[in-house]
Amino acid sequence: MKKNSNQPNPNDAVLGGQGLPLNSGVLGGLEGVKQRLTSESEEIRMAALDEALNYGQPGKDVLRQVVQNETGDLQFKAYNLLSEQVFQAETVWKIQRLGRTYSVCLTQEGTNFTGHYVDINNPSTFNGEVVTGRGITLIYFIQETPGNGYYAVHAGRLTQPDRFDGHWYDTARNVGQFTLSRLE
Among candidates 32, 72, 51, 155, which has minimal Cα distance to 63? Predict the structure, then answer.
């Protein structure tokens, strides 16, 4: 018996003559996301932004391109998506303060993040939160060194992709500006 050519087969990419669902993976993968970002439909383009985060750093790079090259709601949504997941699992960042630079391993779960030094023998822990609102991403975190009463409080804002600038204070009477940026 001959199959009806209008019926979809398991290996068919698209059934002709029908619209594509928003989460359609016609090309699939990151290339499919990039193709949907060129759609005339803003709804399809917005859905593609959500999907880009499924592809790790290459997906974030696509979102950064949207932030740099687009305007309006699409740019705003891409910026917010990038801001919500700032600290990927076990990423190394450098913190600069008082003329010194240290490497810190940070991991985010939800809006909270934790971390520790990776380049010096220092048991300090970092605990903080990422806050996004009105197109601005802020972080605040406390550094604590167990057993000696040392605490440092940091507050900053995202000033570039993968870079925060802010101020800090500690219990040793130090105060100043800091920069937290992801290592390349």
Answer: 51
